[in-house]
Amino acid sequence: MGSHPASDNGQIIDPVITVDGMWQVFGVKPEPAIEMARRGAGRATVLQETGCTIAVRDVHFQVRRGETFVVMGLSGSGKSTLIRGTARLADITLGRVLLDGEDLTAMDAETLRRVRREKMSMVFQHFGLFPHRRVIDNVAYGLEVQGVDKKERHRRALEVIETVGLAGWGQHYPQQLSGGMQQRVGLARALAVDPEVLFFDEPFSALDPLIRRDMQDELIRLQRDLQRTIVFITHDFAEAIKLGDRIAIMKDGVFDQVGTAAELISNPATDYVREFTNDIPKVKVLTARDVMEVTTTGSGWREVRETDTVESFVPFLLDDIRPLTVVDDTGRPIGLVDRAAVSRLLGSDR
Amino acid sequence: MSVAAPTARPFETTTVQRAIPWLVLAVGIIGLQIAFGWVDGFPAAWDLTFETPIDDAGAWMRANRRSHWLFTGLFSPLSGIIDGAIDAVGGFLAWLPWYVLIALVFLIPARVRQFRAGAVAAFALVYCGLIGLWEESLETLALMSVAVFIAVLVGVPLGVWGAMNHRVEAMIRPVLDAMQTIPAFVYFLPLFMLFGIGNVPAAVATIIYALPPVVRLTTLGVKRVSPQAVEASRMFGSTTRQTLLKVQLPMARPTILTGLSQTIMMALGIVVLATLVGASGLGSPVLQSLNQRRTGRGIAAGLAIVAVAMVLDRIWRSLAQSERTARIDRRVLGWTAIGLAGATAIGVALGWVDFPSVWTPSLFDPMDQAVTWARDNLSFLTRPFSDFVVASIYIPARDFLTDTAAWPVLVFVVAWVGWMLKGWRLAVFAVAGVLTIGLIGMWELSIDTLVQVIIASVLAVAVAVPLGVWAGRRPRVEAFFGPILDALQTVPSLVYIIPAVILFTVGIVPGIIATVLYAIVPGIRITALGVRQVPTETVEASRTFGATPRQTMFGVRLPLAAPTIMAGINQVIMMVLAMVIITGLVGAGALGFETVRSLQRSLFGLGFEVGLALVVIAMILDRFTEAAAERLQPPGGH
Predict the structure, then answer these.
(1) Most A CBs within 10 Å, among B225, B230, B236, to test the A interface
(2) Is the ipTM reported for this complex over the cut 0.90?
(3) Among A18, A112, A347, B373, which is 20 to 30 Å from A277 by CA?
């Protein structure tokens, strides 16, 4: 979504969320388990020796303002534990979570409540709606607990309901709505408080494939306008590619690889990552920028934009043997692509 | 992971191994019988004369009721508050002109558009007036309202606390279990001692008896609220209080309402018994009809109790109704209120307060005649049955257990059963219980009661389980039984003992008949549930192998439903025990009669001993059947 991150390696400029060495260990005595794991013991060994389950193992990451950071993993990878720890719905065993420089993990209940009211929201896998409240009162809930008066919160809620495409449904109860509409309510509820950070815990996995695609498009549209900082959890690699500015592939409580969709696809770090990327048609994901040869002096017979997918300009390459010029948003040439670059990409597919 | 070599094979036992416990049983019985056969009953010298200190305490309480701080500072004010509340509510209800009250009973549910509920409640109240029990009904309504209100006032917060705090729940749970296992009349006596005679001990007994469903279902309801909804609420920065009031309690509301209905039904069951401790209301007409053998009037009065419960239930439900239903227009409500006020003023001024007694309960004469006819013409059936039960089962069994079998043999058998069912802990528990009964001098009375309880339970199970299996297999049968079971369960148990007494005269048999009728209900219900819950796929799997319906029933359905059926049997036995006092009222003797006697003559010591013996019997039977249900559970959970 949107533009590319400023930097993938090392420190990120203006991070909103910083997760620093997060460990989440379930069991009676986590300390010895962490010690063992630090010395290199695997999950199974630690479980056998100490009876503790290591769900998240020394994870570090930062999320830039306005960025969509997707954590993709299969069930049991620790991704849910990770997001719950990051949002401090669960206390983590070790590590720090900074939100705008404030340490969430060290906050007392009162401060945490204040930060939540001001800065965060979450969308849940099974929606987590309140069945006893009308749609409008579901959406207005966050404002209600902040003490906003009824008139104002309903006005704001109606606005957001319209934004997510549910105009006219405010007086219904959640059960009267379809699954996709219910999740729109969940989304509206999260947006109504105008949060800085949005957490999405597998929000679309309970929906039908077509509805899921609609919701993904909806989220992309909203994010284009809103530019919020998003942490998004999913088990669907295609969804991760579609939505994520950067994607972390999580397995056994650690990140196997973190990078843009293009980086993961063109350069998978492990066999595990490669297994996911194999199923993804590269020409649909990689863009001109990913395959171009960097040069500012290029002069192809035709211009393509840096964000165009390979698929979209392949016909031009087939039409003519000469290369194409890649230009950025402002129309300035930044590189060249030719047949050789594309055939290298296609050749590495199998 | 390495798998240790099996050192034992728990699932393969030889015939010899299986025979060992039975051998132990046989040797134990014979040995103990030879050794102690000469002993006559439980040694009287061991009696702890437990009743003396209790009687002294009772006498002391009576003497110091007006002076000691325990009464002046605690029980008397408490009693005063409850009594005052009942009087105030009762007084108000009696002050209102009858038609205004009926209109109110309709309007309170109608206000939230529950017109049918309002109509049902209004009709129920009209019924009470028509049969000439208007005043008594209002008294009962007042007593039950106050009791249920207090039960909710105490129960809901307690339930919420239990849901929030595991430790609190762990502490509350066994207390609730005990409150439900112990027959209600057992705590009449201590309450009677503390609060004296009248409405207050009855109200407190009702509160204690009716509290468990509210607490349990509140805890359940709050805990069942989807964890995501709670997390969502937390993520928006709600305080614990906001989450509780805005999310958890509203979402738990339907479950809490179920608890409320159950509470009202439980409270209803006590109304008749409450008369024994001097409560006013509908209990006394029922008791009187029983004494005068007037079936029609007894049933009419019994149904009035049900009617009052219905009024209460509908009104409570509508008061607790969520905002979801559209309310009636405010202007309409306003005019209605003004109209009612006017009607009240006119009624009070002109003295139109009591229900007009234009209608005498002639409808119930035919019922009296029918029962009389049945008594005169069906004796060829009832007499032999009665004689058979008494002469061939009850007396021989009782005499065998009291006179022939030596007491150590009985203790040993109880220990053996406990050990077989769950191990030595249960055995020790049961032996301690049985010895307690002996030590407080309740040995023979308890055996007498136990024999009656076993006869009634066996009969009830013999009726309930086949009917339950039938109902569970065929939805139409269940639909047919449903209302009958509802009626049997809601009508106070004393009501159907009246025809039973007339048909079978006094003695143990009418008590057993009424008990069976009362106790089969949960048996049928739970058995049907168990049979129905067997997964369709499992049954189909059996069918694809070509099993006959009979094979499927005995090979698949019944074994899978067995734990649930056992739970039903447990319920049956608990219901049978709850009926002991009622049987005591119609001449079944034993512990039931002693309970009635102790209440009527204020024999505190005796009452305590009888109560303790009943509690012990109830707890042992409860644990035994529970353990049996656990054993029937297939290994590896449920």
Answers:
(1) B236
(2) no
(3) A18
